[in-house]
Amino acid sequence: MATDFLTANEKTLFTNDFKDLIGDPSIGVSITYRPFSSKGTFAPSTGKVVETYGADQTINAFRAPISEREIEASGGKYQAGDWRYMIRVADVATPKKDDRIVDSTIVRYVTLFSSDPLRIFHSVIVRNVG
Q: Phi/psi at 99 (nearest 5 deg)?
């Protein structure tokens, strides 16, 4: 494995450093993570399918907009207005497509995610709901 050169203690130090970094209010932000459960059922009164979500979780994350260069190089995976959130694996074990991130009053949905080789954090790509 690519991380075999690290001891358990070193991985713990990296994990704690990342936790401290996103917990710093000058760098990290507090978000609400809302896990998607199912498309739910059709509501004839509104004409919409009611989606269901698991329990909201308030966590810290690092956020950054996806750059124009990344959008151009992505082959259509990213769009203007997409954002990247770095969240701890300890906070969200496995993100899923259609999970929601509420950042202040803006609601975004997960389109893609990947994890670092140490499984300390996920890089979650989100798009505005709308």
A: -60, 160
Please answer whether residues 126 and 108 qualify as being in contact, where contact means their C-beta atoms are separated by less than 8 angstroms. yes
| Buried-exposed string 77-102: b where 16+ CB fall within 10 A, e elsewhere | ebeeebbbbbbbbebbeebeebbbbe
What is the distance between the alpha carbons of residues 124 and 112, in angstroms, rounded to a whole number? Answer: 6
pTM of the model: 0.84
Strands (E), the chain: 29-34, 36-43, 48-53, 57-65, 83-88, 100-103, 106-115, 121-128
Summarize pLDDT for 56-69 with one digit per residue, the tens: 999 999 999 999 99
> What share of the chain has pLDDT > 90, as a percent?
62
39 has pLDDT over 90: no
8 backbone φψ class: left, alpha, beta (φ>0; ψ -120 to 50)? alpha
Q: What is the largest CA-CA distance in the chain?
A: 59
Is residue 21 packed enough to be buried (19+ CB in 10 Å), middle (13-18) or exposed (0-12)? Answer: middle
